[in-house]
Amino acid sequence: MTPKRLVVGISGATGIAYGMRILELARKAEVETHLVVTPAGQLTRLHETDISAGDLAAMADVTYRPADVGAAIASGSFRTAGMIVAPCSVRTLSAIAYANNDNLLTRAADVTLKERRRLVLMVRETPLTMAHLRAMTAVTESGGIIMPPVPAFYLGPESVADIVDHTAGRALDLLGIDVPDLPRWGEESVPNNETLMSEEKLIWNT
């Protein structure tokens, strides 16, 4: 039986915490992870974390060099559940949108799309130009999913870690990878319907 595999890409936008948390949650879900980090992604690691390149690599089951375009994840015959790029820079978004397979990350993403597997890009940029939006449209038309890491404040997060956890879990949801403790609307982690209805009556009667 083929193990459930997930390809994780980390590129040079701010928000490397998302990619790191996805690796941790995938390991808890017993999903085999294959990681590729671009040079700009490593630069982000230096700016935003205290961990070494070796520590980051150890969070995945298999790690590849960006220049290793002959790696397993560069072939469609290597079966995976899909790929998440977290964070995804605009440069990486654009390369994926127009099949510019200039490194292993963008090649693996292109393979994911051509094999009709699920590709999730956590694009980290704002404000957006028309060029950004057109690249997002091109990825969507090719079957990919654009998922900017937008926090869900209705859950009442108490820390940045809470925000990262929920967003990372939602990204894994899109690939059918279950995160058991992920807070969800309508469950115990949010106000129940009775509370919401009473509050709504108060609002409309004032």
From TrEMBL:
Dimethylallyl phosphate binds at residues 154, 170. Residues 4-173 form the Flavoprotein domain. InterPro entries: Flavin_trans-like, Flavoprotein, UbiX-like. It catalyses: dimethylallyl phosphate + FMNH2 = prenylated FMNH2 + phosphate. It is an enzyme of class 2 (transferase). FMN binds at residues 12-14, 38, 89-92, 124. The keyword Phosphoprotein does not apply. It comes from the Bacteria. Pfam families: Flavoprotein. Its EC number is 2.5.1.129. SUPFAM superfamilies: Homo-oligomeric flavin-containing Cys decarboxylases, HFCD. Flavin prenyltransferase that catalyzes the synthesis of the prenylated FMN cofactor (prenyl-FMN) for 4-hydroxy-3-polyprenylbenzoic acid decarboxylase UbiD. The prenyltransferase is metal-independent and links a dimethylallyl moiety from dimethylallyl monophosphate (DMAP) to the flavin N5 and C6 atoms of FMN. NCBIfam families: PRK06029.1 (NF004685), ubiX_pad (TIGR00421). Belongs to the UbiX/PAD1 family. This is Flavin prenyltransferase UbiX. The gene is ubiX.
